[in-house]
Every structure is written in C-alpha cells, then in structure tokens.
Amino acid sequence: MSKAIRFERTGGPEVMKWVDVPVGDPGEGEIRVRQHAVGLNYIDVYFRSGLYPLPLPGGLGMEAAGEVAAVGPGVTSLAVGDRVAYVARPPGAYAEERVLGAAQVVKLPDALSYEQAASVMLQGLTAQYLLRRTYAVKPGDTILIQAAAGGVGLLVCQWAKALGATVIGTVGSDDKAAIAKAHGCDHPIVYTRENFTKRVREITNGAGVPVVYDSIGRDTFTGSLDCLAPLGLFVSFGNASGPLPPIDSSEFAGRGSLFFTRPTLFTYMSKRADYEAMSAELFDVLASGKVKTSINQRYALADVARAHEDLEARKTTGSTVLMP
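Now predict its structure.
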C-alpha cells in the first residue's frame, strides 16, 4: 500500500484525506512512478471545490517529478531508475506513488532537481504556450500579466523579459511588487491602491498593450479589456476571483476589434511531439538561467489542507511544492 490524498465530496480543504491506496503493477504501456515532489496549483482548488467537476471519489494534483519504479509491458523508452516529470490527467499527483502511461511523462535532465520540475511543469508549460504560441511575444512588445507574483506570473515575467519585452504586472501588495520586479517585471502595479487600467495607459503613452494574460477572471475582466490596444488579444487562462461574466461580443467590437481566447494547456500539449518540444524549451530556459523557479513554500503532502488554505488566502508567492 501507498499513501495518497483522496476526497469523496467537493468543498473546502477539509474534504481532502491522507489515506492508504493500492498502487498495483503497471500494465501495457504504463510505468509506476515513485514521486519525490508534487506541485501545487490553483486548478487543484477548482477541482476540490467543484468549479471543475471530477468523478468522485478521486484524487487531486496535476504535476510531479520522481523516478521510474517499475515498467510495464511494451515500454521501451523508459527504464527503472529514470528521472521523470509530468503534468497529466486525470488528477492524482497527490500521492507517494502512482501508475501512469509512459507517454504522459518526459525525461528530466540531470541539471534540474525533482523539486524544480514538480514546481514548474504545469506553470512552466503554461508560460511556454502563452508566450510562444497563444501570442508570440517579440522584442519591443509591452505585455500585461495579471497576478505577476504568482507561480505562472513570475515565470512569464522572466521569460518575456528574456524575449525582449517590457513587462507590466499587477500584484496585491508592495511585498509582491518587489518580488515581481526582482523577476523581470518592469512596471509592477499594486492593484489594491492603483487603477491598473489607468497605469497601463500611462506606461504605454495611451496606446495600450497587444496582449493581456489574465488568470484572475471576474474581478479584472473589464479592466483587462480596457488595457488592450486595437486588435489586442485578451487571454483568459484562469478564474482565481471567479468565472467571467457572460460574454457580450460588443465589448470586444467597441474597444477596437479585440480578440478573445480561453486556452488550456492540454490542448496545446495533446500531441506527444508538442509535449516533448514544449518541455525541451522549458528545460532549456531553466538550465540556461534565463528563467528561474521560485519555490517559496514547501509543505508535507499530508498537510496539503494547510497549503490550500494559504493558496486561497493569497498568502503564497511563486511556486509551492508538496513533499510525499
């Protein structure tokens, strides 16, 4: 038997239980992974609370890193002892060990630690597709990232800066503004006391930005649209403050023929070749030092309820890892 977090009903952090679970041997095309570090992400809260429905009872957690403990029939690309990392569905990474399809993991370079990988697979691959594919950031661009001091935000700030962009970011406090600035955010805006739309217009001399990356949702929707230049792109990739209001297309027409997209990581990485290419680019920018992980919190996996409480209270910055 192995230990894992399971929940039988949606609700607050208290619904998560640390229980014994059978793991079993890997089947055809599968591997068993002994996990050394697990990532914590806001999407875990969405699943736990019921905002994103899951079959219950079930597990939580989308990403982890560890070593291959067993290999099933037909698996030739991996061997026992290989270091691997993944972001995968269905959720279930909150576990000491689990069985996965071999195609769901990528090999982890020696240059990266298990904690680095576990903290960055979901958030780092999200930053990759946002900056490289959803809107291909180029030198001279000025971009806006909401929640700039969060896990994805800090990665976007660094990566966009490395690509030659000017980065504007919103944060909730002076402490978070300092963190964002230290990670490449040229213009941190403390939204609790500043009108971020007005500040973006001031910074851009009235022009607005070509893209807004918004993971906050309801509270920033209208303000984000007002930051965009004509033909700008509003990228909604999260709902930390709640779902967006019903979309009225005239909101986009009246502000200058704006574009809207609601991307998901698993669409962008649905092809194995894309998953490998995205991971390789992420690992390269991490190994080069252009982008650094910021693991600012560590919790025992058994204490994940406290980690969720802190995440929802916005007490965390950067990335958080759970240690099995």
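Residues 134 and 263 are 8 Å apart (CA to CA).
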